[in-house]
């Protein structure tokens, strides 16, 4: 670096705006965005391991997109090139590619190309990047305030991992102020700056999640305020208000925020929430949205979502739009709000969507002729009889007569379904009655269809109907989906699977948290090896972290492995993990590993509520005495106080959980599954058991050998029969305890 270059860099470092000087230089200095760079998150692991692939950072201004790219530049061993899409063109791209090729060919060094405001590149410029990203010559890191799925070349997006940065939280912005006031090298640590609590709160609130706007306001406040006699710069509420007076609302009339806000407004109207509708309307008006655009969308909603539930809706919205055009702004806000409130409080019906069913019928069905009575009779009534037999409704009582108006091929077709809301509720019965009369009229004049074919019973079809029913996989899928629906996962969450032997929950978790991480606990080496082999198909950074350890020893293993990373799990999930006696202690030991907003979710089969086999038998197959003894013997299985699988009750266990986590909850789901009782299944029931006694073993404790054989013979009557198998699963949700 030349002397002049050093001098220029020194001036930038010392005289640049505060926001530029305070830009974090490492992950430890970075504030906010824990959902993507928090401990254990995918992006943090990738940066620390220097295994960056092509990335696109998407978010509002001041959320840290460029800062993250600079942190990567400071930590990577790759050559780093930075360009701005506003200033650069194809020439700069070619120069960067040439440098990357030289570094790769001469030094085997990768090159990271950071493109700020990447959405500013036109299609030709983005296409110029594509082949070099595709063949690995450069690793692209793009930063954009626009939705990359709309503004960036689809081919580039498909080869990049997208990370969305969110506006900073208030607590994060408070840390930004504190950091700036105490940093002696880049901030105001060498000055005596005191900021009042309400002034600080005002700056944080009006900054609206934008760290750059916050630092700019703080800089203006400090630089324009003189120190008092003691050399202290006092930042009062009045000074803070002068430094940042109006909240910056992110709103681009052609971008994501525009479409997202109008979507929120329309959905609030459709959902009959007048408060939310007024809020989103105010957001748009405040940001300068064209009121005529808003009226146009409300007119569409009046037809689509209110429809005939209130036929006046479209009239009133149109009148409000005309009034707005007459009076203009700012008074035009009154009819704007009036139209929104009318739509939000109006009854809703989307029965007009029946038109699109009719349209689909026109597109799919063979074109049908207009029925003869409905044809125009003015031209050829005498030649072809067009219009003959048409019944003129006004000639009849109530100006209506039952006759068909649809083509013959669509007789009985229903497109319009009146709702039971508003005005439509009044006409619903009338429409139904008239349809019934029309169908009756059609049937009376309709010939019976001919019997054209006859065929013997299809033996293949008969075999298909008698196929073996096996719903185990479907049941497991239901339990998995139920558990994940309760989890409400975010893409950045870190998950711990407590019983990952089958991989059922682990693989689904990996799909749902691509920017987070999954830790999988397996209880034996065979399951660990199987899981590792399956995981080799995934990229290294996307694989689960496999912990081979018993559930009892898991907390200590976590402490040994994760104490340096300070990882807390957003969700801990498990299926049938509470198989030991000390169920409460197992749960208690896991709760400290939850994030403060985290939850432990368990799906536990309630063995006590499993299907009883004696209930499947017909009463006349056994004597009354033996049937009663069988019932007592089988019930004893499910009331064995020494068996940890059987000696618990879902509600009682919930009360134990609530003693350590008062907000713990239970949802008990009952299932009935079709099960074919095969001879092999019967054999398993009565064969000698291994680690756990079989059904026959349990019966032999209360029944004689001959009685067990009698029961077994009676059970053979179930062979190849399909029975309804009842079971119950308890879904527990246990939130992290309050500290």
From TrEMBL:
Gene3D superfamilies: 1.10.8.60, 1.20.272.10, DNA polymerase III clamp loader subunits, C-terminal domain, P-loop containing nucleotide triphosphate hydrolases, Vaccinia Virus protein VP39. Residues 51-168 form the AAA+ ATPase domain. One of its GO terms (molecular function) is ATP hydrolysis activity. One of its GO terms (biological process) is DNA synthesis involved in DNA repair. It comes from Drouetiella hepatica Uher 2000/2452. DNA-dependent ATPase that plays important roles in cellular responses to stalled DNA replication processes. Belongs to the AAA ATPase family. RarA/MGS1/WRNIP1 subfamily. Keywords: ATP-binding, DNA replication, Nucleotide-binding. InterPro entries: AAA+_ATPase, AAA_assoc_2, AAA_ATPase_RarA/MGS1/WRNIP1, ATPase_AAA_core, DNA_pol3_clamp-load_cplx_C, MgsA_C, P-loop_NTPase, SAM-dependent_MTases_sf. This is Replication-associated recombination protein A. CDD domains: AAA, HLD_clamp_RarA.
């Amino acid at each position: 670096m030349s002397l002049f270059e050093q001098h220029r860099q020194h001036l930038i470092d010392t005289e640049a705006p505060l926001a530029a000087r305070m830009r974090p230089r490492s992950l430890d200095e970075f504030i906010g965005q824990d959902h993507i760079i928090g401990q254990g998150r995918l992006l943090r692991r990738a940066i620390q391991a220097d295994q960056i692939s092509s990335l696109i950072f998407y978010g509002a201004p001041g959320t840290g997109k460029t800062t993250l790219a600079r942190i990567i530049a400071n930590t990577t061993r790759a050559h780093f090139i930075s360009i701005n899409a506003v200033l650069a063109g194809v020439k700069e791209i070619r120069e960067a590619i040439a440098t990357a090729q030289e570094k790769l060919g001469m030094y085997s060094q990768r090159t990271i190309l950071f493109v700020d405001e990447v959405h500013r590149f036109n299609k030709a410029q983005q296409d110029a990047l594509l082949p070099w990203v595709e063949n690995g010559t450069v690793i692209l890191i793009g930063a954009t305030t626009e939705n990359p799925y709309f503004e960036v070349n689809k081919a580039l997006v498909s080869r990049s991992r997208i990370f969305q940065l969110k506006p900073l939280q208030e607590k994060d912005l408070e840390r930004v102020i504190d950091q700036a006031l105490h940093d002696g090298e880049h901030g105001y640590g060498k000055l005596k700056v005191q900021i009042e609590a309400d002034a600080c709160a005002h700056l944080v609130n009006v900054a609206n999640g934008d760290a750059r706007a916050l630092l700019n306001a703080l800089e203006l406040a400090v630089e324009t305020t003189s120190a008092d006699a003691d050399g202290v710069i006092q930042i009062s509420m009045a000074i803070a208000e002068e430094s940042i007076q109006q909240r910056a609302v992110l709103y681009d009339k052609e971008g994501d925020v525009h479409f997202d806000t109008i979507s929120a407004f329309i959905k609030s109207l459709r959902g009959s929430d007048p408060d939310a509708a007024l809020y989103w309307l105010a957001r748009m008006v405040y940001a300068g949205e064209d009121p005529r655009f808003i009226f146009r969308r409300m007119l569409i909603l009046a037809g689509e979502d209110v429809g005939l539930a209130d036929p006046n809706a479209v009239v009133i919205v149109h009148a409000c739009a005309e009034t707005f055009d007459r009076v203009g702004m700012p008074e035009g806000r009154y009819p704007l709000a009036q139209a929104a409130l009318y739509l939000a409080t109006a009854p809703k019906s989307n029965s007009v969507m029946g038109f699109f069913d009719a349209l689909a019928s026109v597109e799919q069905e063979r074109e049908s002729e207009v029925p003869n009575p409905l044809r125009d009779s003015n031209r050829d009534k005498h030649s072809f009889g067009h219009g003959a037999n048409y019944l003129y409704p006004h000639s009849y009582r109530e100006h209506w007569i039952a006759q068909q108006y649809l083509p013959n091929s669509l007789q009985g077709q229903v497109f319009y379904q009146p709702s039971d809301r508003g005005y439509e509720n009044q006409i619903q019965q009338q429409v139904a009655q008239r349809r019934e009369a029309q169908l009756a009229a059609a049937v009376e004049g309709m010939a019976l269809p001919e019997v054209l074919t006859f065929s013997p019973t299809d033996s293949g079809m008969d075999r298909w109907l008698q196929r073996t029913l096996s719903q185990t996989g479907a049941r497991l899928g239901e339990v998995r989906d139920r558990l994940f629906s309760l989890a409400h996962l975010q893409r950045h969450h870190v998950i711990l699977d407590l019983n990952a032997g089958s991989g059922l929950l682990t693989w689904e978790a990996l799909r749902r948290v691509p920017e987070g991480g999954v830790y999988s606990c397996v209880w034996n080496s065979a399951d660990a090896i199987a899981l590792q082999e399956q995981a080799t198909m995934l990229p290294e950074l996307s694989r689960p972290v496999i912990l081979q350890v018993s559930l009892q020893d898991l907390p200590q293993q976590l402490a040994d492995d994760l104490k340096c990373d300070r990882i807390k799990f957003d969700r801990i999930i498990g299926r049938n993990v509470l198989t030991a006696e000390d169920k409460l202690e197992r749960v208690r030991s896991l709760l400290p590993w939850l994030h403060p907003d985290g939850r432990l979710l368990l799906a536990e089969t309630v063995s006590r509520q499993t299907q009883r086999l004696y209930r499947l038998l017909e009463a006349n197959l056994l004597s009354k005495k033996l049937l009663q003894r069988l019932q007592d013997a089988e019930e004893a299985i499910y009331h064995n106080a020494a068996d940890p699988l059987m000696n618990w009750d879902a509600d009682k266990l919930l009360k134990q959980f609530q003693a350590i986590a008062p907000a713990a909850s239970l949802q008990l789901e009952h299932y009935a599954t079709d099960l074919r009782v095969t001879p092999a299944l019967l054999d398993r029931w009565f064969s000698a058991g291994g680690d756990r006694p079989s059904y026959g073993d349990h019966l032999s404790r209360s029944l004689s050998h001959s009685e067990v054989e009698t029961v077994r013979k009676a059970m053979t009557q179930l062979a190849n029969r399909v029975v309804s198998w009842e079971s119950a699963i308890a879904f527990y949700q246990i939130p992290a305890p309050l500290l």
